[in-house]
Amino acid sequence: MVLATAVVAALGIAYLGSRDRPAGRIEIDRNDPAQVARGRDVYDERCASCHGVNLEGQPDWRVRLPNGRLPAPPHDESGHTWHHPDETLFAIVKRGLVPPNAPADYPSDMPAFGPILSDADIRAVLAYIESRWSPEVLKVRAEMIGAK
Question: Can you list the domains of the chain with their CATH numbers?
């Protein structure tokens, strides 16, 4: 009985840890030309209208609008995207700015793309964004968060 309980518990933990990682998980690889190309297409279609064609973000992105929301930040090196681990970036794109990646009831225009984009498309977008960062930023990021 104890063994059966341990097996069920282990399976439950494995399931919870893998529910966002379907079989055949595609890693975020800024050096994979196919993934980066797919990511650029998805970015152009779904992200560029807010975050800018060149990842530059919206003007005055650090200044709250009258409605309390912040403009879309840049994803280039002038922003803070590169300060976050891949898991956090993936979660924000998939679920929007909700806990644990933002305070409860945080006012944001960032939609949850999980219902629209596949996990592979989200990873491709992140690969495209990361492919645009300089070697210097990638080095600092790796030192900050242990990124590859």
Answer: 28-145 (1.10.760.10)
Contact between residue 126 and residue 86 where contact means Cβ atoms under 8 Å apart: yes
Contact 128, 43 (CB under 8 A): yes
* pTM assigned to the model: 0.80
Tokens read off for 61? 């992105």
Q: Which residues contact 50 (CB under 8 A, 6 or more apart)?
A: 58, 72, 109
| Contact in structure between 137 and 120 (CB atoms under 8 Å) | no
* Per-residue pLDDT tens listing for the chain (148 residues): 433 333 333 333 333 333 344 434 458 999 999 999 999 999 999 999 999 999 999 999 999 999 999 999 999 999 999 999 999 999 999 999 999 999 999 999 999 999 999 999 999 999 999 999 999 999 999 999 886 5
Q: In the chain, what is the straight-line distance between the N-terminal and C-terminal CA atoms, in Å?
A: 42
18/25 Cα distance (integer angstroms): 10
